[in-house]
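Below is how a single chain appears once it has passed through the pipeline. First comes the sequence as given, then the structure the pipeline wrote out for it. We keep one example in the README because the format questions we get most often are answered faster by looking than by reading.
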Amino acid sequence: MKIKIKWRVREVALQKGLTSMQLAELAGINKNTATALWHGRPTRVDIPTLERLCKALECRIEDILEQTEEWRAAHIAGGQPNTMRAALT
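Resulting structure:
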């Protein structure tokens, strides 16, 4: 079973009327990072970037990250990933 977290950056940004490039500028993040987040395929995201995204989108972290059923099932079974990177792929 693949443990996965779903990124919801695009959905939240679109609700606020933002494009990925506007989000990059507003959050002060690299355009490539914004594009990867927009498409749900970042290779890694650090805590300051998450903080800037939440501030720019006026949201909480759980609004832009969603635990999938696979994640919940693995968590209950004690199969948490060893790293945040593993959790986000």
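The mean pLDDT is 84.

See the next section for the split statistics.
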